[in-house]
Write a structure and sequence with these properties.
The complex is a heterodimer. The radius of gyration of chain A is 35 Å and the shape is rod-shaped. Chain A is mostly helical. Chain A has helices at about 10-75, 75-85, 125-210, and strands at about 90-100, 100-110. Chain A has one domain (about 10-180): Helix Hairpins (Orthogonal Bundle), CATH 1.10.287. In chain A, helix 1 (about 10-75) crosses helix 2 (about 75-85) and helix 1 (about 10-75) packs antiparallel against helix 3 (about 125-210). Chain B is mostly helical. Chain B has a domain at about 1-185. Helices cover about 70% and strands about 0% of the residues of chain B. Chain B is built from 17 helices and no strands. The longest helix of chain B is centred in the N-terminal third of the chain and has 28 residues, at about 90-115. Chain B is globular and about 50 Å long. Classes of the chains: A mainly alpha, B mainly alpha.
Chain lengths: ~210, ~350
Amino acid sequence: MSSKEVTPTRSVLLDLKKKIKLSQSGYKIMKMKRDGLIIEFFEVMEKARKMRAGVSSDYEAAMEKITIARVVEGEIAVKSAAYALKSEPQVKLGSKSIMGMMVPKVEATSIHTHLVDKGYGVISTSAYIEEAAVAFEKLLDTLVRAAEIETTMKKLLDEIEKTKRRVNALEFKIIPELKESERFVKFRLEEMERENTTRLKHLKRKGEAAE
Amino acid sequence: MFGRKGKSSNYAYTAARVKAKKAHLLAEDDYSKMLMMTPQEISRYISEAGYTKEMTDLANRESGLNLLEHATYANMANVFGSILLASTGGLYDMVSAYLTKWDNWNLKVVLRGKSYGLDADGIREDLVPAGILGAESLEKLVSLEADDDILAAFGRMTHITFPQDVLAAYKARSNLAEIEDYLDKRYYAHLLEVIRPTDRPSLIFRDYVAKEVDIRNFETILKLKLDGVRGEPVMKYIIPGGKQIDAKLALQLASAETVEEALSEIAQIGFYEDIKDSLDPKAATIREAVMGMRKYEMRQAKKFSHLYPLSVIPVLDYMIHKENEVNNIRAVARGAESGLDRDVVKGLLVI
C-alpha cells in the first residue's frame, strides 16, 4: 500500500496504528516460529543422518545375507521360500503437528513375522534363508521410519523457507510501508490542522476588520 | 511300499554303476581351480565336466547362472533316476525312501507357487525331479489348482495320508508350514522305518540318517531360539529318531535360555567340536554353526564311504557326494558372480 493511496484521515491513522501493532506482533511471532522451526530442523536432521547411516548398514547387512543364502541354498530355494510368505507388511499413515505444521506419521505393522508364522516349514527352511528374511524385515522397518523422518525434514525445510519469506516481507516491506503511510497521514493531518488554524485566524481577522 | 518287491537287492550291479560315476565327481582341486574363475569360465568348466547334456538342453530356456543351477539340478535328477532304475529289492526301497525328500521339495514348490499365484511355467521351472515321482506325476500336480486336490493327488502318488489334524491346522491358519513340517518329519520316520538294521551296512546307513536327524533338530532349536521361541513349543518341530538328541535332551536344549547354555548341554555330541567356536552367545547368527554341522555331516559320510563295497553304502555315499557337488558348484558360481571374497566362498563349500 503506497502512502499516496492513503486517505489522510484520523480514522485511517487509527487503523494504520492498529495494523502496525498487529504486524509487529505477527513479525515477532513469525520470527520465533522460524527460529523454533530451525531448532526443530536441526534435531530432525541429526535423526535423519543417523537414520540414513542405519538404512545403509541395514541394506548392506540384508544384501550380504541374501547373497550368502543364494550362494549356499541356491536361487530356486530362496525364490521358493519367498513365494511361501503369507503376511504382507502394513503401513499406517497419520499426521502430527510441529508448531502448527502437519507432518506425516508413518507406522508399519506386521513387518516382523515369527518363523513359525512365515508360511514356510520351520524344519526344512535353512537358517541362511531365515536370517536373510529377518535382515530384510529389519531393513524395511528402518526404511519406513526413515521415510517419516525424511518427509518431516523436507516439510520442515519448506515451512522454514515460507516463514522466512513472511518474516522478511513483514520486516522489510509491510511494516516499513505501514510506518511510511502512518508518517504520511500524521504529516497530512498536522498540515491540515495548521491550514485550518491559519484559515480560522484569517477568518477571525476578516471578521474583526468588518466590525 | 515303492514296488519291485519280491526281487532281491542287486547291490553288486548298482554299486559298480555308482563306483564308475563316483570317479567323475569333482575333486577338491577342481573347486580350488573354479574359485579362481569367472562365472562364464565356471559354466564352461562344468559343461566339460559331465554336465554338457543338461547345459545344452536348458540353454534355450535359461541363461547365466540360472542355467548352471538348473542344469546341475537336472543332471543330479537324471543320475538319481538312473540309480533308482538300476536298483531292486531292499536297495530300491532304501534308495527310493532316501530320494523322497525331492518329492517333498517338489510338492513344497508347487504349493508355494500356487499360494503366490505363480503360473504353471513358473512353478515347473523350479521343480527338481530327483525323487521317485516322474515328470508326468509332477506335471499332474502342477496342473491342479486347489491345494486339497494337489495334496490328495500327491498322497495317492506317494501313498502318504495327511493326518486330519495337520490338514485342519493348515486350513485354519492357511500356513503351509503345517504341511511342510509334517512332510519333513514323515520323511525321516519313513526312511528310518525302511532301513532295516539287519546287517552292518544298513546299520551304518541308519546311523547316518539318525545323525542327520540330530543335526536338523539342533538347527531347528537354534533357529527358534533366535526367534525367541523356547521350551515346549519347540518340541512340535523336533523330528523323532535322532541318535544322540532324544526328546528329553531336545527339550533341555530348547529350554536353555542362552546359546551358551545349550552348547554346554551338547558337549558330548559328535558335532560339538565343529560348532563350539562358531556359536557366539552374543552373535545374532547361527550361520557358522549350521555350516559346521553340514561339514560334520559330510565327514561322517566320508568315514563310511570305503566300507562294504557291495551294499547300500556306496550308493548312499555317491548320492550324498553328488548332491554336495551340485551345491558346491552353485556356491562357487554364485559366489563369483556376487563378488564375494574367495575365502568366504571357500568357507561356504562343503568339501
